[in-house]
Amino acid sequence: MTTPSTNIPGPTGLPLLGSMLDLKRDSLGTYLNAHREHGDIVRFTAGPPGLRVELYAVFSAEGAQQVLATDSANFRKDNAFYQEVRESFGNGLLTSQDEDYLRQRRLVQPLFTRRRVDGYAQAVTGETASLLASWRDAPDATVDVVDEMTRLTLRAVARILFGVDVEAAVDVVERCFPVIGNYTLQRGYSPVNPPRNWPTPANRKAASAMDELYAVCDRIIEKRRADGDSATGDDLLTLLAQAESAEDGSLDASEIRDQVLVFLLAGHETTATSLAFALHLLARHPEHQARARDEAVRVLSGRTPEAYDLDALPYLTQVLKEAMRLYPAGPVIGRQTVAAAEIGGHTIPAGKDVIVAPWVTHRHPRYWEEPERFDPERFTPELEKERPRYAWFPFGGGPRACIGQHFSMLESVLALSMILRAYELEAVDLDVPVDTGITLRAAGPARCRLRPLDKEGEGNVPNG
Ligand code: HEM
């Protein structure tokens, strides 16, 4: 047996700062270049002397599987990024660990069974119908699909969470989330941060956004808890408030708020990104758009789609999977090693930051031919079976895999089917640059021109 090497290759970067500026300016491009130049495991150094940190990137499917699944206990969410997310958005299912996490997952999992999630379809189709109706008045018959999909997915997740109280929450979330998100991100990637309780302008602005966001959640939660067993709604919040087991008891008010914040955080911009890029890609590839529309029209004719239609829309599902390959909403997933880890013949020392990167693995030439080409045919069941399990992992994997993946696929496919049936899309912006916030975001406009389809033709525009 050969001794694993600790001498992991990587860019030298600038003499004093290492790769800090490259990672800050264009982290995704920096990872792709590093993969091309140094291979499947790369060591970066970043930051000035004295504060210099090391970051290890693992780009192979097998390495991603080891980090997220087979050796997951040795790769914890102890990194600075997750610590900041925890402080901003609470210790909910995305961020908690150990006993807290296991208890929360046991209580929350029953709310995400397939049967339960299928029950959320109506909220999605109702919101999509309103959105499509509003497009009839779009100036120049043009919409920015990122803005539109962000509005749609926020309203859909807020309706599922808050039921009748959706309006009270949407406005506050729209205003406060970007402020808190940017602040969290800045701190997560900065080598030093002033304590959160110092009265700096950034701290104060974020604290006030957090106060406002927490307050609206708390008000709605209080209302549900006051209703107690007499609550008749079946929104997620009522179910969270009622969730209990002999072993785990129930969630208290602040734990419920933490889950709500996590669902809002993890469940809105992510699906918006997938849907927006699916639309953008279809708008650029009319032949794939026509095929996707044919399927939607054939399966649904004029009726509103329902959850059971998902299985009958395989091409739309392939389109979404391919959009998530090219634009994974979580392009990079971070962990920290507990003990030294041996991966692909190298040793990553204990206590180091590690990332796996769907953004890079989804373009790895070993698994994907002509990786930059949009081709939904890659996701036929036969071709999917031939690939390593972690060649495609937009929802993460292992014990901390996304709890919302079925919901997200359901929401996206149903919304896409309704949009394509009602409108033909033509891309105005051919190239949409991206940026990494807490999730992947478009960094420029993603406009599409809309052509309503007539009733005899392939679809119909809903009437308000
Ligand atoms: C396209 C849409 C989505 C993508 C790409 C996505 C991606 C991910 C990824 C990569 C993780 C793992 C993070 C890690 O390992 O560090 C994750 C976890 C999670 N996601 Fe999603 N997500 C999506 C939609 C949703 C939705 C709609 C919800 C909820 C309504 C949701 C809730 C969660 C939660 C609660 C976790 C933590 C699960 C756990 O640790 O047990 N996500 N998601």
How would you describe this structure to a colleague?
The structure is a single chain. The chain is 50% helix and 11% strand. By secondary structure, the protein is an alpha+beta fold. It has a domain at 1-79 and 331-373: Uridine Diphospho-n-acetylenolpyruvylglucosamine Reductase, domain 2 (2-Layer Sandwich), CATH 3.30.43. The strands form 5 sheets. A 5-stranded mixed beta sheet has the order 1-2-10-7-3, with helices on both faces. A hairpin with a 2-residue loop joins strand 8 (341-343) and strand 9 (346-348). Helix 6 runs parallel beside helix 17 (405-422) and helix 7 packs antiparallel against helix 11. It is globular, with a radius of gyration of 22 Å. The termini are far apart. Bound molecules: protoporphyrin IX containing FE.
Overall pLDDT level = 91
Quick one: overall form?
Answer: globular
**What is the highest CATH level, the class of the domain at 1-79 and 331-373?**
Alpha Beta
Q: How is the quaternary structure best described?
A: single chain
C-alpha termini separation: 69 Å
Number of strands: 14
Major sheet = 5 strands, mixed
For the record, the CATH architecture of the domain at 1-79 and 331-373 stands as 2-Layer Sandwich
Radius of gyration: 22 Å
Bound ligand species:
protoporphyrin IX containing FE
Indicate the low-confidence ranges by residue numbers: 456-461
CATH topology heading of the domain at 1-79 and 331-373: Uridine Diphospho-n-acetylenolpyruvylglucosamine Reductase, domain 2
Strand-pairing-aware structural class: alpha+beta
Helix content: 40-55%
Strands side by side in the biggest sheet: 1-2-10-7-3
- Percent strand equals 5-15%
